[in-house]
Amino acid sequence: MKLTNHVKINLPAVVGNEGFARAAVAAFCTPLSPSLEEINDIKTAVSEAVTNVIAHAYPERSGEAEVEVAIYDDKVITITVTDEGIGFADVNQAKKPFYTTKSAEEHSGMGFTIMEAFMDELEVRSEPGRGTRVTMRKAIKQHA
Amino acid sequence: MEFSSSVKDGVVVVALDGELDEKSAGQTREFLDKTIRANCHRLILDFKKVAFMDSTGIGVLLGRYKKLTQAGAELCVTNLNSQIDKVFRISGLYQIIKAV
After folding, report:
1. Global pTM value
2. Domain coordinates of chain B in residue numbers?
């Protein structure tokens, strides 16, 4: 696959930046003429990934979320959200529906389930003390 | 997030206006909890002006669902757009929260 466009955005992991991230990624993908459903899927998945960084990655210090979007062959979108936060040991457990470490704060634990359902592929890598990388792919099917 | 509400015969309708995510979750939770305290047997959330909701919104709704159920009341939603409808379908929210 040929890389046809890409962008990298570094954001402080603070509440409110999830909205900017999903809007920015959606705007970057707009030239591919995605359907409304496809663009909403992308916005939702990005919001989930960046919210995870904001809510979980840096409990005791400030940090950043790096959002990288790469477009291949003008139709396949790869979105990578990376942090250098506390990470976690068990990726399979974290991906289970309704699994959350913050039930008292009413986190639903559905973030990874939503990402998986709204995108074609989801890959999660995490290491305690080193951070987390979430990679999502989606092929845009409808071209105007 | 902005809110407007009306009450009739114990049915409270709250119209939400904005995006339901990490940024708006706290104020939404606070507003709805105040509303629940006001003796209602049914809370209907009108999503007509909500353009976006992610799983943070699921958490907010589940929390209100629990409180209402404990009080013998029910939570309903109406006017969901296609994005929010998909979040409801994927998460199974429709199994406990009725769309009216």
Report:
1. 0.94
2. 2-99
Instruction: Collect all residues of chain A within an 8 Å Cβ-Cβ radius of residue B25.
Output: 106
Tell me which of A81, A106, A114 to substitute to probe the interface with B (most B C-beta atoms closer than 10 Å).
A106
Q: The domain at B2-99 falls in which architecture?
A: 2-Layer Sandwich (3.30)
Query: Under 8 Å CB-to-CB from A52, ≥6 apart: which residues?
Result: A81, A111, A132, A134
pLDDT tens readout for residues B43-94:
999 999 999 999 999 999 999 999 999 999 999 999 999 999 999 999 999 9
DSSP percent split of chain A into helix, strand, coil, nearest 5: 35, 30, 35
The second-level CATH assignment, the architecture, of A3-139 is 2-Layer Sandwich (3.30)
Q: Hey, where are the domains in chain A?
A: 3-139
Query: ipTM of this model?
Result: 0.93
